[in-house]
Amino acid sequence: MRAVISNICKSFKNPDGTVFNALQSISLTISEGEFVAVVGRSGCGKSTLLNIVAGLLSATEGEVVFEDLASEDRPLTSVVFQDLALFPWRSVQKNITYGLEEQKVPSRTRDDRAMELIELVGLAGFEKHYPHQLSGGMKQRAAIARALAVNPELLLMDEPFSALDAQIRMDMQVELSRIYETTGQSFLYITHYIPEAVFLADRVVIMGERPGRIQSIVSVDLPRPREEKVKVSPEFVGYLDRIWSEVRGKSQEFGADR
Amino acid sequence: MTLNQRVVKDKTGFLIRRQNPYVTWVSVMVVLGLWEMVGYSGLVPPLFLPRFSAVLVSGYEMVVSGEIFAHLFASLWRIGWGFFLGAGAGILTGVVVGYFQLADDAARPLVAATYPIPKIAILPLLILWLGIGEGSKIAVITLGVFFPVLINVRAGVRNVDPLLIKAALSLGSGPFNVIRKVILPMTLPMIFAGLKLGVGIALLLVVTAEMIAADKGIGFLILSSADLMQTTRLLFGIMVLSGMGVSFAWILEKLERLLLPWRE
Predict the structure, then answer these.
(1) Where does A125-233 have alpha helices with state H?
(2) Contacts of B161 in chain A (CB under 8 A)
(3) Could you report the predicted ipTM of this complex, rounded to two decimals?
(4) Which residue of A has its CA nearest to B259?
(5) How many whole angstroms separate alpha carbon B236 and alpha carbon B52?
């Protein structure tokens, strides 16, 4: 599998008739089993890009093509949204099986698969709970399990941890890293939080704003499995420093003061 | 140290609401007792306000003779059909106009023009079309229930969080399954809000329709008792109506709890 994002442009019409360029010529290839993180300031078009890859928004120009697919009917993508969008009328288990229902997977297999995932994300014992009965971190785990369940070619995550408090956020990063290392799932992960991107990703894509475009790409060569303590290693800090200066340096050219 | 000591008190204490089940019963007893005493005191002639016990006796006679059941079932049958047809059509139309903009554009002026008409004003026309029998009575209830359900369901469908729809699409749902598996469950609370409005309207319309033309039903019982100055029978009819309203609300409440266990 290879997800090829080629020359994506997206512009919106402002109410006054002028055109706002949200994305300009975005090209990026994500390979099988790769974890790619996209960082950039709020409003740089990261989420717009993710929605286009997910097929929830049409691009003004360019296209997203999945090449070298091993299977005909494996779904291309599934999404973990920033606001999670768990179905409030479905239990944790029923949320996770939703995508499998749509794939016409028999009910027994669906439930087995759901239990595996509940186990994997650490929600055992909560499968019958409704979303409103779960804490923020648990909802997060349920949303990840739901997206994993359909076994997509590429799993898309849109700032999924931004609503969590710092402690749980760190736990979830470790957890997600473990899930990535055990499943071999390909990820496209959007965040504005650079340490998170470096901790999780094989490659960090830095986006500039106005118009949103790829500024540079940094490969992260930290050993896996990655654990919490990697965050205090000199290599990790080195990557942070490099990406920070990229983000900061280029923004100043435009006189951005945010 | 202890000289100048003040303890912090919970200032919100007076806002706490505690239910008291005894007071609920006591208030009912007090009102019924007062009613009974007014009768004994002889201040009001029994023709205008018979004693509560006299109403019960009269009601007991109607229960024993089976007369009340004939009236009750006639009314229930009309409400049942009218409510079923009106709610069904209302939910269906509400989903369609909520989901498809074209249908909404077509239906909006029609609904705006017909909704405000007091349904009882249409009854003579319905009698003309459907005859004086059950058809016209059921039809007027159907109309009365249809509109509040339609308007609530439409609002419910339109207010479904678009993110949930996106989530369903990203998990592989097509447009039909989005309606069935996301929009319908999300609209269920609003459907119930519409049904609760509709049930009150159904009760109102069945009585009115029965007062205009019927030989059976609670509305007929009340009107004919008034004509014959049988105030005890009249009051028992009113009490049956109250009981019907309370039971309908209770049933809907239970059904809502059963179908919406996921609500916070």
Answers:
(1) 136-149, 166-183, 194-200
(2) 85
(3) 0.84
(4) A89
(5) 9
